[in-house]
## 1
Amino acid sequence: FFSKSSSVQTESASWKAGEPVPYAALCQTFEKIEETTKRLLILEYLVKLLVTVIKLSPESLLTVIYLSINKLCPEYEGLELGIGESLLMKAIAESTGREMKKIKADYADIGDLGVVAMNSRSNQPTMFRPKALTIPHVFKTLKDIASLSGNSSQKQKVDKIKLLLVSCRNKEAKYLMRSLEGKLRIGLAERTVVVALAQAIVLSTPDIKKLSQERLQARLEKAAEVVKAVYSELPCYDLIVPALLKGGIDNLKAECKLTPGIPLKPMLAHPTKALTDILDRFENTAFTCEYKYDGERAQIHKLEDGRSMIYSRNSENMSAKYPDIMEKLSKFSKDNTTSFVLDCEAVAWDREQQCILPFQVLSTRKRKDVKEEDIKVQVCVFPFDLLYLNGRSLLQEPLEKRRELLYEHFHEVPGEFAFAKSMNSTQIEDIQTFLDQSVANNCEGLMVKIMNGDEATYEPSKRSRNWLKVKKDYLAGVGDSIDLVVIGAYIGKGKRTGVYGGYLLACYDPDREVYQSICKIGTGFSEQDLEDLHKSMKDHVIAEPKSYYLLGEGNKPDVWFAPVQVWEIKCADLSLSPVYKAAVGIVDASRGISLRFPRFIRIRDDKTPENATSSEQIADMYNDQKLNTVKNNNGGGID
Ligand code: ATP
């Protein structure tokens, strides 16, 4: 990793200490990464680049990280790439002088606009050589493009893309296009980037060469753990990268902690199939059962300076969706509470009957620019965790303590703010009764959580086995619902003329950045659903499937969609399939997994397509199902 020189020659530009990083340096690394599937090699390539950046141009480290994960800012700021292909094709045509017709034909043929742009550029005679692109310039232009809105924004976007394109050399056009599209598809997962960042910081410390190989390895592993943990608590590279450059790994935890105003990644739960699974898992451990409310997760932040905000499960700022909650926040906390972060579920509430309403009612609320006087659906907030209080993070405290502090510092307001209902018993009959009660109260089931000890801490972003979810349907053997992305549709016939009659769905593989086809779906829709879905999806039709759709031979819907919507789906079971590609390579080398008898439940507005059920989760569900079949055949198993 250690280069002695203070300059580097890339394919097309030289890079001296103190100068901005050439875009070519990043693209060369992307190219090497794309050529391999070996995780360690991918990590090594990126670490090499980052070490050089730290040495020659440390002020560019943050932007190099952002471009490597293809993001422009922290998620909660909501600025995203994902430029439509027609705009990109227009920019390629105008910057290369090629006919649109030819570009469209190439795209249909090659299926990758990055490659189309690169080929179009390389066939073009160049009169003069524009200045080489640099990382700060590319990043700033991408940010400008994503920020443009309004009437003339399309033309302005095309103009800016054209300016970048004419300066591209070698493979740069390929990666630039893919960045603009929103998917790099080089097999570089964000968690690898986090590990590479940690390792590069360690390898850049002055005394590092003196360490034995063994101690160096231990340091690298520890550093990766530290940065991963800090990132899930404070998902903001804008704060983490400068802190790492200034104080290294050792000071990171002290510098970067959970901070009100910055949403942390929520802790997630593991599904269970039977009540007996809970007892198996939590034998000899104190646990608590809570109602699993069926609404929308809401992370409520209150800052010392008096500001407050509400974030979704996805770290999206929902303060404008819930002006009614924002208005009442001060009523819920006691006087001894100056700052806090609460983990809650916001649920639709029937004022007259004083009871919880089903999720469907909540989903009728507008998401943006809600005026308090127009609100028809009242919401009751059910806090189930307290993560931060009066300047102190509580993440390392056990749930019992966090709950105690929650009760101590907040009070219930009927119909507006109520502590999640809980029950502590290890008797299966009591748990069953509590589950029945929760369902009778319009809840989805139970959340079962460890109360004390090291396993009872709050684990941001983790799907933890210390939190189990028991949904009412599990017990009937149906299994957890699955959240899938709609990527295509079949034109409706007969009764379904005029709307789409069925849809093609996909799960997401975050490591490879591809959507993998999983099943066709045609049931579970009401007539109204079919009309609404047709209306909302027809604006997202694209001419060709995205190059990041992994499809089987027979996956040929009548229309393709850009990945925009996530649907909650239930199914009878999962099976191996030669036609679909979900989780291919995990359970079976060539066959994917498909859903049998899939049924539409609802749209999941609170999940982005990249938050859809992952290939790994699909593989886990398939394997669990096999395990349960064996258990059942042996006389054990499901209640
Ligand atoms: P995933 O499927 O990725 O786990 P999800 O949002 O679909 O995500 P669910 O299966 O619905 O997760 O279960 C967890 C969700 O349940 C939480 O994200 C939260 O919104 C909700 N919830 C309701 N009541 C509670 C509770 N008492 N404790 C924790 N979460 C709760």
Note: The pocket of adenosine-5'-triphosphate is lined by residues 268-269, 290-293, 297, 313, 345, 384, 420, 447, 469 (CB under 6 Å).
## 2
Amino acid sequence: VALCEAEEAPPAYSRPYDVETRFNWKLFWQFLRPHLLVLGAAIMLALGAALVNVQIPLLLGQLVEIVAKYTRDHMGNFLKESRNLSTYLLILYGLQGLLTFGYLVLLSRIGERMALDMRRALFSNLLRQDIAFFDAKKTGQLVSRLTTDVQEFKSSFKLVISQGLRSCTQVVGCLVSLSMLSTRLTLLLMVAMPSLMGVGTLMGSALRKLSRQCQEQVPEFPPILFSLPLLSALSLLLITNLTSYLLESLQVARATGVADEALGNVRTVRAFAMEQREEERYGAELEASRCKAETLGRGIALFQGLSNIAFNCMVLGTLFIGGSLVAGQQLTGGDLMSFLVASQTVQRSMANLSVLFGQVVRGLSAGARVFEYMTLSPCIPLSGGCCVPREQLRGSIAFHNVSFSYPCRPGFPVLKDFTLTLPPGRIVALVGQSGGGKTTVASLLERFYDPTAGRVTLDGRDLRTLDPSWLRSQVIGFISQEPVLFGTTIMENIRFGKLGASDEEVYAAAREANAHEFITSFPEGYNTVVGERGTTLSGGQKQRLAIARALIKQPAVLILDEATSALDAESERVVQEALDRASTGRTVLVIAHRLSTVRGAHHIVVMAQGCVCEEGTHEELLKKGGLYAELIRRQALGTPPPEAPR
Ligand code: ADP
Ligand code: MG
């Protein structure tokens, strides 16, 4: 009980039903259009299979009639008389199987191809989104749109076509043959069904309340659906389905969130010896989900048990009433048999339809989530705009009165009237307190964001008029404090900087970055696979690979954002050597925390609270005795500089 109560707290993990976006039919149509022909064929086959299914009970009835005759009379040749009918039935069975095979193959073909197209389109559009978009979203959520949601949508689509068509045709067809067999029985059945459904609806709403208590995320259905007795019976099964699905996905998602976090950050967990606590957390989430799911499970079990009794009673009732009709010679035994089989088909089809209705709701919301980000267009496009030919590029950068606040924190100005010039071929150092906005300056230069006011120029041209892809891939080399490598070979990681670079270019870049030696000392050399995120390398080695990766594009402008601050003294020396070599002849912005690394700069800019507060050479600034001198003094004493005020 305590665990169930603990569940009341807001969930830490994202809920799949958070987003209530509308399903985009237009986009869906675009994905469906290439498959219309195949879809048409699948529909025809499914309809054919359903019609064959309607035929079968009638023929079975005729066969039973013959059997009954021979039970009575024991005369004539049973085999001979039933041969034609049996053969026909066998043919129908075969045909039914063949048609089913056909439409299932076609549907899975359409489903898989549509899923592939959707995943591709979504992935490509996600990759194009602004960096600000990713600041606000969890990657896990985005990935689940690519995987689970597409999967869900695909299976719903397939099910709706196959089961939906079949069930509808069978309900209609069987109702027709029922009324042809015996109008009276059919009418009786039609009277009995709604009353059963009424009871079912009551139970359904009780179940709904129950599941509400466990979990408040059951989507509302339009009340009109509930007012119709037939649809309410359908919604009944759907609710049980839907809630169990919701519970499952939500609860398991929360437990998964815990597991994901612990396994993903296993080093931190290990370092704090928190294994047991994580086990307990995971166990508690699992326990809570079990607790709720069991309560609902009991409700569902009760409902299913009662509905089984009801359906069986209907069979008995049909037999009883139909039997008296047979006794009164108003109906043949065979027709009664046909009637029973056909009415079972109706019931089964109706149950299928109700399950399907739930599936439609699930599919639509999954589809809405998939399509949501497909239509989103970024503010900063990936490409488009002019490029400057390499020979004309001087690499002079200027920030003119730039103000900026992050889109996800609009009221918080990070840069205020910030002005900075990076002359071509010179090294400018940017120093200042942590949180002062230095990395932000680099991000603006990479055009991850656009300034709120003011402009950033390259050779006098506003960055917004230049092609962003060209800017990032050919002009600017960016080396950050925590380099991220991909889980592939060293060769491929360096080549990431310039697609199609030759092996020689890779070696040259590695030499320039002081990396060639350690790479060749590995048994597999350049083909060594660095673990996921490069975990199998030391910090200094990773950084040198990152430098090689940046240098291979021969950038005119190099940004070093605290590139050595995570390294120990020895690695720092090797990396710094590589950086010094790489800096010659380029426009360089060195962002540094450790002031020892900026002494070689031609010009030093000190920033505080989002603007430049002083600049000059090391000596000039020391003489001035301002913030820079203060920072130098503090570092000499070994006290860290204070955090910038928030
Ligand atoms: P520095 O590199 O000088 O340490 P940053 O440029 O990283 O500082 O950060 C400047 C300010 O902007 C900080 O207050 C930080 O909290 C905020 N900030 C940094 N990145 C983001 C982001 N992606 N979204 C919102 N705020 C951010
Ligand atoms: Mg920073």
Note: The pocket of adenosine-5'-diphosphate (ligand 1) is lined by residues 135, 406, 408-409, 414, 434-440 (CB under 6 Å).
